[in-house]
Give the backbone structure.
Amino acid sequence: MRAKSQWLLAQLCATFLLLGGYLDASAQDEQALAYYRQAKINWRQAEGQSLTIGLNKHPFTESLLPLIPEFRRLTGINVEYLILPENEYFTKLVADLSQQRGEFSVIMTGPMRNWQYVPPDWIIPLDDFLNNPKLTDRDWFKLEDFYPALIAANRWNGKTGGGVGEGPLYSIPVLEESYILAYRKDIFEQYNIKVPATIEEMAEAARLVKKNAGIAGIVARGTPTIGTVATGFISGLKGYTDGKWSELDDKLAANLHDARSVKYTEAWVGMVRESGPPNWANMQWYDAMEAFTAGQGGMIADADFFAANYEDPKKSKVAGKVGYALIPAGPDGSPHSGLWTWALGISKATKNKEAAWLFVQWATAQPTLLNATIGYRNYNPSRASISSDPRVHEVMAAWGGGSYLKTVAKNLETARVAWVPQPERTRLGDIWARALHEVYFQRMPAADALKKASGEVDKVLKEAGIK
Amino acid sequence: MTSTRRRRGRRDRYLPYLLLAPALILLAGMLYPFGLGLYYSFTSYWLQYPNRFRFVWFDNYIDLLGEPLFLRALEFTLGFTLLAVLLQVGLGLAVALFLHARIPGRSAIRALMLMPLMIPPVITALMWKIMMASTNAGILNHLFSFVGVDPINWFGSTQGAIVSVLIIDTWGNLPFVALILLGGLQAIPTEPYEAARVDGAGPIAMLRYVTLPLLSPFIVLAVTFRAMDSLRIFDVIYATTAGGPNDATTNLQIMAYQYSFQWYQMGKGMAQAVVLLLLVVMVSYLLMRLWNRASESTQ
Amino acid sequence: MTSAAKSYQRLVRQVAIALASIALLLWTVFPFLWILLTSLKSPADIISVPPSFVFTPTLDNYSALVVGEQRGQYSSTRPDFPRFFMNSLIVSLGAVALSVAAGIPAACALARFSFPGKNALAFVLLSFRFVPFIAFVIPLYILYQRLGLYNTHAGLILAYQLITLPFTVWMLRSFFMEIPLEIQEAAKIDGCSWLGVLGRVILPLSAPGISVTVILGFMFCWNAFNYPLMLAGRQTFPVTVGAIQFISYEQVLWGQMAAATIVAAVPQLLLSLMVQQYIVRGLTMGAVK
C-alpha cells in the first residue's frame, strides 16, 4: 500500500516537473518571440506554407539556423535551407534562378549580384512588401535603423551604367563590408615606419617591413579572379583618382587602361612583387587573412571585418598588435573605399511570396541581427542600433585601441559601391585580375596588359548586348 | 533435335545484346542531357539574358580558334596528360613490380596504398594546398629547410603550379594504377618465366620479353583510364590554382567551367566541353584499338 | 663469388628494399597523417608559422561534426554531417550495386561472345565515362528538376552510373577474359546453360576481380563532387559537398574539414580491409591456372 502511494507520488512529482519544464521552456520561447510579437502584423498569415532558403556560408547564416524552429513557432511556416561556400552557392543559385523553378525562395545576394538578377527579372523589389501594413509594421521594423548608405546600395533603377541608390529596393542588408588598411603597429613603431598615406608610401612601408622584420611587407589576394581587384586594390585606385575614375566610362567603354590606372597598377603590382609573399598569385582571401593573422604580413588592405579574426586571441598571433587606417589614396585624393553588403532578397519564381517576406522581415529584424553579431561574429552590423549596443561596441572599440571604429566610421563617410552597374561585372573583374597577373609575371608592361584587358571587356560587353 | 538446336542458335544470337541491354538502357537516359548540351553549343545562350537566346551555328567553335586562351588551354591539356600518364604509369609499374616481389611487410604496404583513393580529390587538393601553401607556413617547405633545400614556390610561380598539380594528381591516382598493374602481374602464369629462365634470361630480359608483353593489356587499361581522367582533370586544379597563375594551369575543362559557371555564357562553355569530348574520344579510340591488339596477343 | 660477398650483396639489397618501402610508405601516408594531425589541432595551431608537430591535441573538431555546438569564439558546423555521411553511404552503395547488376551481364557479353558491333558498343559504353561533366551538368540539372529527380537518392544513383558503370563493365570484362575457356566448356558439357556457367564458374573464379571493381567503384562514387553539387540539395548532399561547407565567409575551419575528411574515409577503409584478403591473395587467375 505504501509502495503504491509512493509510486503515485513519484509519478505526480514527475508530471509536475515535466509540466513545469515544458512551461518553462515555452516561457523561454515566448520570451524569445516577445519582441517579434510586438509587431502589429499577423505573423501567421502564411501558416502552413514552405520556404527554401539559399544561403551563403557566413556567420549570419550560422546565426539563423538555430533560430529557425523559433520562426516556425512564430509563423507556422516550414523552412528548409541550403548552405554552401560562396562560389558554389552562386553557381547553384544562378542555375536555379535561370530556370525560374522557384527552388529558392529567399536568397542571399548583394548590390553587385542584383545587377545580374534584375535585368532578367529573377528577383522582385521589396518596396511593396515594406509598404503593405498587413505584411510589415514599419514602426517596429525600423528600416531607418539601417545605415542609409547600405540601403541605398541595394537600390537600383535597373539602368546599366548608373542608378545605384535610386529605384526599387531589392534586398535588405545584413552586414556592411568596407575596405581598410590593417597594419602591424608593433613593427611600424619598432622600426619607425610611417603609416602610409599614399600608394608610394605604402610600397615604401612594405619594403621597410620586409627588410627589417623579415616577413612579407604586404599580403593580399592574388588569384586571377575578381576578388583580387575588388577589395583593397580598387579602393586604393578610387582614392588615387579622387573618385573620378571608373572602370567603364559613361559610354560604357572599358577604361582600365587610363593613365592613372596604369600608374597605380604599376605601383601596386610592383609593391606586391617586391615585398609581398612569393605565392601571391595563388592567395585566396583566407590565405591573405590567415597570413596576416599568423603574423606573416606587415599590412593587409582588405575587408574591415577581418579584424574580428586579427583580434581573436584564441587563434591570432597579432591580437592587440594591429593598427587600422584608411587605405592610402593618392596625392590629392581622399579615401573612396568600396562597399559590399550581403543582403536578403526574394526570388520571383517563388510561390510563397508573403511567406518569403515574413522570413526576410524576421531575419533582418533588430534582435535577429543583434544575436548574429553578438553570438556569431557577424560584422560589421548593418543596423546602427547594433553598433551602438554596449556589448557590440565594447568588443569593437577594443580593436586597434579604438583605431578600428574610428577608421571605419571615417571610411563609411565616403565608401560607395565601387563598380559601374552592369551584369558582366564579375567577368570584367576576372579579366582585370588576369591582367594583373600578366604584369606581375612581367609578361607585358602594365599599359599593354590593361589595354588588352579593356579590349576584352569591350568585346564581352558587345557580345552580351550591353553596349 | 535439329529444331531445338536451331532455336538455341537464334537465342544465342540475340543473347549478347540482351545481356548488354540493362547497361545500355541505364546510360541511354544520359543521352538527352548531353544532346541538350550539344544543342546549346550551337547557340548563343547566356543564362542571364534569356531573351537573347539564338542559334548561331558554328560561331562558338570558330571563335574558339581565335581565342588565345583556348590554344594555351589545349596545349596544357595535352602536355599535362602526357606528363601525368608517363609519370603515373611509370611509377605505378615500378611500385607494382616492387609489391609483387616477396618483400617483407608487403601486405601491410598494399593495404596502406589504398589510402589516397579514399579521400575525395577536392579535399586532397585542399589538404595539399595547406601543406604546400604559403612558402613559410607550409609543412613541406618547413621540412625541406631541415635538409637545406630552399623554399619552393609551389603555387605562386607558373612552373611551380604545374609541378604541384602534377604531384597532387599523382599522389591521388598512383594507387589506382599500381593496383591494376599488380592484378595483372599476378595473373601472369609461371610457365613463360620458367621457359625464359631455362633459356638463361636475366631479370631485365625477363622483364622486357616476358613481363611487359604479358602485362600489356593491363598497362594499356591503366594508361587509358589515367589519360581519360588527366585530359579532364578539374577538381585538383580548381581547388588549388583555379587555373592560374597567369593561366598556367588552365585546361579545357577549367576553361569550360569558367565560361559556363562563372560567366554564365553557356553556349561557349558547351562548345569548349564538346571540343574536349572530341579530344577525349579520339584519344580513347586510339587507346582502345591498342588494348584490343594487346589483349589478342596475350590470349 | 665468396659467401661474404654474397651476403654483402644481400644486405645491400635488403637495405635498398627497406629504403624503398619506407619512401613509398612515407609518400603515401604522410599527407594522411598531416590531415589527422590537423584534425586534432586548435585553430591557432593550424595556421601557426612554422607549422607545429607538437601541440595540445583537442577533440573539438570531431565533436563539432556530430554535436554542432558553438565552442568558444569560432562558429562551428551544424550537425548535418551525420546525414551527409548516410547520404554518401546510400548513394555509393546503391550506385555500385546497380552498376554490378547491370555490369556483370554486359561484361559477360563482351568477354565471351563475338557479335557484330561488339567493339563499337564496348567503345560507346566506355565513352560515357569520359564526357566532361560540364557538358552534362546543367542540362541534367534542368532535366532532373522537371522529372522530380532533383535532390533524390535515386537521381544521384542514376547519375553516378556515368561514373561507375563503364568502369565496372570494362574491369569485369578484363577479369572474365582471364578465365580459361576450357573450364567454361567443361561446365557447358556438364549441361549448364550460360546462366549456370556464369553462376558456377565465372563469378566464383572472378570474385577477387569483382571485389576490386566494387571497391574502386565505391571509392569513385564516394569521392564524386561536381554531380552531387548540382543535382542534390541539403537533404541529399554527400560528404564531399558537406566537407567544403567549412569554408565560411570570414574564416576557413580547416580543423573541422580535416576531421570530416578522416571520418569520411572510414567506410572506405573498412571496405578495403574487408576485401583485403582478395587483394592480397591476388586479383588473379594465376592460382587457377
Summary: Chain B touches chain A through 34 residues (CB under 8 Å).
